[in-house]
TrEMBL record:
Any Pfam family: Keratin_assoc
GO cellular component terms given for this protein: membrane
Similarity remark: Belongs to the KRTCAP2 family.
Domain of life: Eukaryota
Protein name, as recorded: Protein KRTCAP2 homolog isoform X1
InterPro entries (UniProt xref): KRTCAP2
Location(s), subcellular: Membrane
Its membrane topology: Multi-pass membrane protein
TM regions (residue ranges): 6-23, 35-55, 75-108
Alphabetical UniProt keywords: Membrane, Transmembrane, Transmembrane helix
Organism annotation: Neodiprion lecontei
Length: 133
């Protein structure tokens, strides 16, 4: 079931706050082993997706349906916030958050291209040469 941009902004904002607070509450657990530290970076990449979704939906609500998130400042700012939040858990989580976020951003871009592409292609121009005899 699809929701409007405003509702999606509210939902992703609430989930962002819940995930951030959960990461801060269990920071000792994330630092207890290497696997938990990598999982903290993965949760940081989920935080990146939620922040990017919230910002994108807020801008679409304010500026119209045709507004698109750009690499700078929306994506870069969301990535920076998520990496800082992961760094508050563990230093290695920052690196894994960056890597997982880049992978997630690649797949988000692919899905966006499939869903929102216009689907119209320009046919190749065929040239016919006229030869004089």
């Amino acid at each position: 079931m699809a929701v409007t941009n405003g509702v999606s902004f509210i939902l992703s904002s609430i989930l962002t706050v819940l995930l951030f607070s959960g990461m801060q509450m269990y920071r000792g657990w994330f630092a207890s082993s290497q696997l938990h530290t990598v999982f903290g970076g993965y949760l940081g990449s989920v935080l990146f997706i939620l922040i990017l979704t919230a910002i994108g939906n807020l801008e679409m609500t304010l500026f119209g349906k045709s507004f698109q998130s750009k690499l700078f400042p929306e994506v870069a700012g969301s990535l920076l916030i998520a990496m800082i939040a992961s760094g508050m858990v563990h230093r290695v989580s920052t690196t894994t958050c960056f890597l997982f976020s880049l992978i997630a951003l690649y797949y988000i871009n692919q899905i966006s291209q499939q869903v929102y592409s216009s689907g119209t292609t320009v046919p190749a121009a065929s040239f016919q040469s006229k030869k004089r005899k």
